[in-house]
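Q: Got a minute? One more chain.
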Amino acid sequence: MPYINIRVTKENGEPTAEQKAQLIEGVTELVSRVLGRNKSSTVVIIDEIDMQNYGLGGESIKSIRERK
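A: Always. Here it is, folded:
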C-alpha cells in the first residue's frame, strides 16, 4: 500500500479544496501508472504548514516575507 505525504505551505488562501483534490487524484494516478499500484490502496496525506511554523535561518518565513 503506497503512502504519499505532501507538505505545502498555506499562503494566500491556497491550497484550495479543489487544488488538494487535484493533488490527491494526480498523485494517485501517477503512482498507479509508474509503480503499477492499485489506486484503491494508495493513501495520500496533505499536511498544510502555516507560515509561522516554517523557519529559515532562525526566523519564521512569515517574518521574512513581511519585511520584504
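A: Residues 3-67 form a domain with the Macrophage Migration Inhibitory Factor fold (CATH 3.30.429.10).
Q: Perfect, thanks.
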